[in-house]
Design a protein that fits this description.
271 residues, 28% strand, 2 domains, 8 helices, alpha/beta, six-stranded mixed β-sheet, Rossmann fold
Length: 271
């Protein structure tokens, strides 16, 4: 299974939300969209899901052009930062709901629900209503419902943002293990560099609607291709200085200077 963007862009009211983008996501991979608020993470996810149609370019799934295909006709599951569950239904029925819409048999539904509940540590809570659960348990219920769909593409839009610190730490460890077993393409949006490092896999650094770099997460972190990517993937924030070089001397700030050693000595003179 492969999701592929070919020169995909998105304009809204004449304003560019996503610049022309080429991107390929492979089956069984965790792919993190990392960037500040309004960098384009949710816009990219909506294009992946089919909730929005690109202004230009094409979207391919397993080699098939799905650019105009409705979201309900795609094998996509989405989990948002809000706990979206059906409050009047039990945890069991919440998890089972997409399978019933797919007309699965009672036996298939029961098996899939119990497997997902076991994976998400919800088995003792299957008879409870969502409002009887903690925030972390409610989000695990939403994740379980996404998993039982057996979707080829799972989109997670800052799913841990509303959890407390301890629950976020636990879920960050659990999520890669859970998703590794499914073999789907996973896309996880976050504003936090630490979260991207903990989740591993691949990271796409985003800035103002552009993917500045896409590679294995340690590569993007340790070898950013430009200052913008370094800024996106830094915690605490990086400091940047304007520096001028003349001969072996580097000048910056209020008349401060330093000797240009090592690789810096090979730079041409100038700013």
């Amino acid at each position: 299974m492969t999701l592929e963007f070919k020169n995909v862009s998105k304009l809204v009211d004449g304003k560019i939300h996503i610049h022309p983008t080429d991107l390929t996501l492979e089956r069984g991979t965790m792919n993190v969209l990392l960037g500040p608020t309004q960098s384009g993470k949710t816009s990219l996810m909506r294009l992946m899901a089919g909730l929005d149609v690109p202004t230009e370019g094409r979207v391919f799934w397993e080699g098939k052009d799905v650019t105009g295909l409705r979201v309900q006709d795609r094998k996509v599951a989405m989990v948002y930062q809000q706990f979206i569950n059906y409050p009047s239904m039990t945890v069991y029925d919440n998890i089972a709901s997409p399978l019933r819409l797919m007309k699965k048999s009672a036996g298939e539904i029961d098996k899939a629900v119990k497997q997902a509940a076991d994976l998400m540590q919800l088995t003792p809570m299957l008879d409870r209503k969502p409002l009887e659960l903690s925030g972390g348990q409610q989000q695990r219920c939403a994740l379980a419902r996404a998993l039982v769909k057996n979707a080829g593409l799972v989109l997670l839009d800052e799913p841990l943002a509303n959890l407390d610190y301890k629950l976020r730490e636990e879920m960050r460890v659990e999520i890669p293990k859970i998703f590794e077993e499914s073999g789907a393409v996973f896309v996880y949006a976050t504003t936090e560099p630490e979260e991207a490092l903990l989740l591993g896999g691949n990271t796409a650094a985003l800035w103002e609607g552009r993917i500045t770099q896409f590679d294995r997460t340690p590569t993007v972190y340790r070898q950013p291709v430009d200052a913008t990517t370094a800024r996106v993937f830094s915690d605490p924030p990086m400091n940047f200085l304007q520096v001028s070089k003349t001969g072996t001397k580097l000048m910056f700030g209020d008349g401060q200077s330093a000797t240009a050693n090592g690789p810096l000595a090979l730079l041409a003179d100038g700013r």
